[in-house]
Amino acid sequence: MTAVTARRPLRPSLTGWSGRALLGVVLALFVLFFAIPIVWLLLAAGKSPQALLVENPFAPGTFGDLAKNWSQLFGFEDGAVTGWIGNSALYAGGALVITLLASIPAGYALALTEFRLRRIVLVLTLVVMLIPNTALVLPIFLELNVVGLIGNPLSVILPMSFFPFGVYLTYIYFSTSIPRDLLAAARIDGCSELQVFLRVALPLAAPIVALVAFFSFVQNWNNFFLPFVMLPSSDGYPVQVGLTSLLASTPAFNPSSAGAQSVQLPTLALATIVSVLPVLIVFLFSQRFLVTGMTAGGTKE
């Protein structure tokens, strides 16, 4: 008796050496695509305007030129950059505090308590999370204009603290990673609902608190459109909006700006690095908590 074995159709695979080579080439192209601009930006901050245009784009700069660019940057408009950085810290930090005070208890309530309209609130949270932030700027502007907050720091801090994604992250964590029996035992021992949250659930939620805090801080620090609309005066600008003033004072982009307060391209490159440096520092010091928070909720009790 002859057994007839059906041959399976061949499918492309990346397990062989040729597949791995192709994958390596693709990854290398992506790395170069993202790495080359970053390397150029870092090197440009330490060059003179002439060296930036004439010399090799990837030639290293000098500490002397870096010091000159630093002095020009922080001397722009009598130290406006320092004020912009302080404004960014105020807006991002203030919104972060309100976000944590609202998002963590809200996620806990949605995950581990029962109340009327709970499911509707959860659905609304998901729907609002999908709406682009820029689409909400105009109605928020009209609301804050009615109460006279335009130009006030609260006109930026309050909308920034609205962070439904943080509520959803907290909801997922408490739904999957906190044993309900542990909370029930605390209630049996006489803890009120507030004590259960503060003494039992919140200490166990440190990873997700760090994750929500990081995402909120990064989003608020990099927010451009909201403060640009809400703050009519440059004295209240955060650093991301202040970069537009530097850009407008750069003759390479605005020829009519040549003058005593003109900004050269290396100084503009340095300003870009300074604007993202706080986010990079926060990321480097919170890596361990971020990794723990991202993997939290991966298993269910």
From TrEMBL:
It is found in: Cell membrane. Pfam families: BPD_transp_1. Belongs to the binding-protein-dependent transport system permease family. The chain crosses the membrane at residues 21-43, 89-113, 120-142, 154-175, 196-218, 263-285. It comes from Lysinimonas soli. Residues 85-286 form the ABC transmembrane type-1 domain. This is Carbohydrate ABC transporter permease. The lineage of its organism: Bacteria, Bacillati, Actinomycetota, Actinomycetes, Micrococcales. It is a multi-pass membrane protein. Keywords: Cell membrane, Membrane, Transmembrane, Transmembrane helix, Transport.
